[in-house]
Each structure stands twice: as C-alpha cells, then as structure tokens.
Amino acid sequence: MEGVNYILILVAVLAVLNSIAALCFLLYGINAFWLTATRHAQRSRLPLGIPYAQKDLLRVFAGAVEPQDLPVVTVQLPIFNELYVARRLVEAVCALDYPRDRLQVQVLDDSTDETQEILQQVVSEYEMRGYWVEYLHREHRAGFKAGALQAAMPSVQGNYIAIFDADFVPGTDWLKQAMGHFLSHPQGRIAVVQTRWAHLNAEYSLLTQLQSVNLDGHFVVEQQSRFQNGYLLNFNGTAGIWYKPAIEDSGGWHADTLAEDIDLSYRAQLRGWQIVFDPSVTAPAELPVAIAAFKLQQFRWAKGGMQCAKKLLGAVWGSSLPWMGKWQATVHLTSYALHPLMLVLVLTSVPLMIFAKPYGAGVSLVEYLWGWLMLPATFGPPLLYLTGQRDLYPKTWRSRAPLVFLLVLLGMGISWSNTKAVLAGLLGTGANFRRTPKFAIRHRGDRWQHKQYRIPLDGGAIVELLLCAYSCGAIALCLVKGFYVTLPFMVLYAISYGYVGGLTLWQSRS
Question: Do the Cβ atoms of 237 and 264 come closer than 8 Å?
Fold first, then answer.
C-alpha cells in the first residue's frame, strides 16, 4: 500500500509490547514491596490464631495428649529413581520422635532402576525392627506423583498425612512440632500445616547459595505474608501435613497439572479449608547442584503454575474472596509469567533503540519505560529476598546481600527456559513429569559429575549464549545512541545469559 510506513508500524507494535511488559513488571514489583511490608500483618483468617513464632510447640504437644492417645499419622514418601537418597529418606522418617504404633510410613515407589531393591531392603530392615513401614510399588506411573499419592489413599490409616520428597531429611522433632497446630485447634478447618524448607548443601557452590536465598525469600516473606494477611497460599509439595478429610472433601489429588500441590491447596481453600504456615519449623533438603537440574526443576514449577492458573483462576474470581485476595492469588499463580516478560523487554528494546530517533518512538519513550517503570519494578524482588536474609540471619545478612544481586541475574538467565515452560503450560495439555535428580551432595568436596541421572544437553544453552550476544549488541547500541538508563539493564542481561548458558555447557562437559 502506497504511503504506508511499515517500519513505523513495526516500531509502534514493538513499543506497545515493550510498554505492556514494563507495566506488568511494575505491578509484580509493587506486589513484592507489598508482601514484604505486610509479612507481619497478624490478620490470619484462622479465628483462634496460631501459636507459632517463639512458642514451644513441643510443650503444647506434650501437654495436650498422652502418647497412647496420639492420632495415627501416615507419612508418604513418593519416590522415583532415587538410588542415592532413597535410604537416607526412609531412615530419617523412621527416626521421627513418634510412637511406632501411631506412625505409618508408606514408601510409594514408582522406580524402574535399582532404587527398587534399595527400598525393599531398607523397608524390610525396619519392618523386622518393629516399625510400621509399607512398600507400595506401581508398575505404571499413571499420574506421576499425584497418581502415586491418590493410589495410596485407600490404604492410609491416619487422618493426618505427612509428605516428603526424596531430597528431604526431616529432624526427629519435626512431626511433633508440626502436629502441634492440629492438636491445639482440634475443631478448626486446618487442611495443611506447611513448614519451612531448610538446606542441606547451601554452601556447596554459588548456584546452591543462590537457590537458598530464593527459597528463603519465598518462605520467610511470601508464604508468611500470604498466611498473615489471609491470602490463599499453597502446600509446597513436601515437608507438610495434610488432614485427610480435607483432601477427600476437595476432590483428592489431580494429575492434570505438574503442580498438584498448588492445585489441591487452592481447591481446598476455596472450599473453606485453611492452610497454616509455620516458618519456625524446618525440614532440610538437598538443593540441585547442576544448573541443568535447577532449570529442569524451575521448568516443572513454571509449567505447573501456569497450568494451575488456567485451571483455577476462574474459580478464584468467582469465589467470595475479597478483591485483594483474588488479586494476590492471580499474582501468585501467574508469577512465572515474569520470564516471558523479560524476553519481550530485551528483544523489543534493541529495535526500539535503533529506530527511536528517526521515527519518533523516541528516546523519551525508551528511557521512560526503562527509567520510570523498570527501575521501581527492579527493586521489589531484591528487597523481598534481602528481607528474607535479614529475618533469618540478623547477624550476618549484610555479608549475604551480594547473593541477592546475583540471584536476580540467575532469574534473568533462566528466562528462556522458563518462557518455554510458561507457554507449554498455557498452550499444552500434557503433564509429563521429569524429576529433579539428587546425588546426596552435602559438602564442597562431594562429586556428582560421574553419577547416574545426568541430564543430557539440549539446545537451550546455545539460545542463552545467543541472547548474551544479543544483549552485548544492545550494550553497544546504548553507548552509541546515549541510552544510559537502559544500559545497566542490558549489562545485566548479558551477564545473566552468559552465566547460565556458559555454566550449562561447562557442566555438561565435566
């Protein structure tokens, strides 16, 4: 068509996409500020309040019930091909300080390798010593973890079901501490008591340190704020106790998403059940030591979260929750959408800068988007994570502050992988479960490179390095055209993609 300036149209479209992404980033950033500021709001929906935080739940527990009157608790251990950590988990659970005749341990084994023999052996050993331990093996992994949990429900003897993934090693007093909430509120509608994850190998490497900061922020700030404010929150898939009638009333475990924990948590809360989060009770777990394993874990969480958003947001907005509760649930379920937004921002900024002056999309527009929208949004998540470190480590948090900055880089660096996950969750219907491999790594000298379960290299690392090169080109463009507000963001993108892509390639050759 004569007279149509297609370049101007392209610039306008890119400017709209860039603006939408920047505005969404701003909203998520403001929400991070809000959760940080209100984490001690003390407005829990639980009518009687919850006696955690500096209270001795062991004393509450011991004074409330005689040992012979304790409720039966079932501990379920869903396991798939975990030959390095399977025995460790069973031994830790059998060591829980709870009467043997009141503690049913179910080993839910879907393994296809020698993990089967390891589990059969350790279960046999504990059975001979008088422990109530059962080995349940499925030939077909229908429904993956959710399927294993649902299949075992008919054989559950207790009304309380604790769940641990294979990477956890609960302490001996964990069960009594967590059960204290149920015993102190026997008439309440508590569906879950969720405890905080601690870390077995946080100091193993920079990667594990960054993961620990990320999880600390999630539990100490995000989960605590949601609980204190009465917002919907979630069971984190492990290190928590479910009330069996709440599971049954909410429709049981569903296998149509990769985040069966979030799915059931939301369905239960929308039916009036409540979730207690207690950050004072911890269960340590092994963090992924390989960047490929970490990306796989994040991919599963991102895809599962978006699947839950598709499935549950209609019910959330159709519920009687206050508007703020609905908004917080929306932000929670869609939080991984930040990763495709990151890609949109970096990919659209370069052509906008190239054509800014000739076509009036303007230096002012680009600088406005990055300066007035991205800068406030950028400080929200780091403040949240820094607050988590300050709350957990009041004497040493300043020395850990640089890890918060590096965590931001890690989050940017995995945006390509998580963008694929978000799109798969939104557009796809499959829920293929790929577990995160564990290697029983606890100390810096421990080695994992030549063990089984290595994740094969895919093309993601190449894309990440190409994005690093693209960002380097953007840096040069910022310097040439004077986009000095945008410049630091492009430097961060270049470093983050280079780190993640380079580390992935390097570890694949080890």
Answer: no
- Distance from C-alpha of 302 to C-alpha of 417, rounded to nearest angstrom: 10
CB 133 within 8 A of CB 94: yes
Which tens digits make up the pLDDT trace of 78-133? 999 999 999 999 999 999 999 999 999 999 999 999 999 999 999 999 999 999 99
Type and span of the H or E element at 377: helix 375-392
Catalytic residue ranges: 110, 261
Give the contacts of 405 (CB within 8 A, at least 6 positions apart): 382
Number of residues written out for the chain: 510
How far is the C-alpha of 491 from the C-alpha of 472, rounded, in Å? 7
| Distance from C-alpha of 32 to C-alpha of 218, rounded to nearest angstrom | 11
Question: What tens digit of pLDDT does each residue of 208-239 get?
Answer: 999 999 999 999 999 999 999 999 999 999 99
Domain boundaries, the chain: 7-38+336-431+456-508, 72-158
The answer to whether the CB of 278 falls within 8 A of the CB of 193 is: yes
Which element (helix H / strand E) includes 109? strand 103-109
Q: CATH number for the 72-158 domain, one of 3.90.550.10, 1.10.1060.10, 3.40.50.2000, 3.30.1370.10?
A: 3.90.550.10
Which DSSP string corresponds to 199-218?
A: ESSTTS-HHHHHHHHHHHHI
Alpha helix (H) residue ranges in 38-143: 57-64, 86-94, 115-128
Which amino acid is located at 232 in the chain? L
Q: Give ∠ CA 436-438-442 in degrees, rounded to 5.
A: 135
Of 372, 433, 385, the closest CA to residue 411 belongs to 385
Spatial contact of 417 and 468, defined as CB atoms under 8 Å apart: no
Residue whose structure tokens are 């956890």: 168
Regarding beta strands 160-163 and 240-243, do their DSSP bridges make them parallel or antiparallel, or are they unpaired? Answer: antiparallel
Backbone angles phi and psi of 198, in degrees to 5: -105, -175
- In this model, does residue 248 exceed pLDDT 80? yes
Q: What is the pLDDT of residues 137-150, one digit of tens each?
A: 998 889 999 999 99
3-state SS class at 220: helix
> What would the DSSP string read from start to end of 252-314?
----SSS-HHHHHHHHHHHTT-EEEEEEEEEEEEPPP-SHHHHHHHHHHHHHHHHHHHHHHHH
Joined tokens for residue 494: 């270049």
Q: CA 211 → CA 195, 205, 289, 407, 411, distances in Å?
A: 18, 10, 10, 8, 10
Backbone angles phi, psi at 173, to 5 degrees: -95, 5
Give the span between the Cα atoms of 347 and 159, in whole angstroms. 52
Amino acid (one-letter) located at 44 = S
